[in-house]
Specification:
The protein is an alpha/beta fold. It contains ten helices and eight strands. The chain has one domain: Vaccinia Virus protein VP39 (Rossmann fold). The radius of gyration is 18 Å and the shape is globular. The structure holds S-adenosylmethionine (SAM).
Length: 282
Amino acid sequence: MTDHQNISLDWMSSEGSELRPPADLRPEIPHPARMYDYYLGGKDNFPADREAAERVMALGPVVRISARANRAFLQRAVRHLSELGVKQFLDIGTGIPTAGNTHEIAQRVHPDAKVVYLDNDPIVLVHSRALLAAGHGTAVVVDGDLRRPAAILDDPEVRRAIDFGQPVALLLCAVLHFVDDAEDPHGIVRQLVDALPSGSYLALSHGTSEFLPPADRGRGAAVYRTASARLTPRDREQVLRFFDGLELLEPGLVTAPFWRPDQEARGAETTAAIWAGVARKP
Ligand SMILES: C[S@@+](CC[C@H](N)C(=O)[O-])C[C@H]1O[C@@H](n2cnc3c(N)ncnc32)[C@H](O)[C@@H]1O
């Protein structure tokens, strides 16, 4: 159990009571944020999320390994960028808070670091706000959608928190695979990166099915077709294109456990099905 799981949201633990959640969480539909929470061993999920997550996990240990490796990549990337002097983070597709959130890692290095969390799932917004209200650090929580980059860049809360004249770290971790090809994910990333000054960074991770046996490659996406967002795994070449015009930091685009590991990646960990990289805008 993480520290933050001690923050109780009364409506969630009050089965059968009159308490109502502060937003329409649509518990009957699996949501990616809650499925991810389940993969990570969290408790902020409903039966429909767990049932869908179990169907994805039938693919094998790779699912939980990838979720954990992705989260660990996000944390190492935030720490590394903070150590490079970055003090502003725009974390899009934040996820439900768990141990080691972006603002905690960034503010350990720079107590005045600014962090904006932006997500389109009400459960993420509710939990993130509860965490901050309980005194666990400072950040801004914004209800927004990655598929509307212009609205993100114009959002008054985003603009108040982030100085677009100073370097920004844009975090797009395990979120772009929830944007269909028809929604132009590469164009979305370009539009966001174009708004950042030189010396800014993009930290990005993305699920892939290319290491699965061919017969299994469509199975994860089939489960997410019943969820609130569809899943589009992409291969290394497609993910690499998100970094067009940017300078990839060493070691380049690698599977998550191999991005500047704290200790050598070993055993099962090396099978993570998630590409990860960090790049600088020249
Ligand atoms: C797998 S979680 C990743 C969480 C976190 N970034 C991490 O890497 O640990 C994906 C998150 O993206 C959010 N998400 C999915 N589609 C989105 C969209 N179009 N706009 C904003 N957030 C989105 C989900 O609600 C969920 O919280």
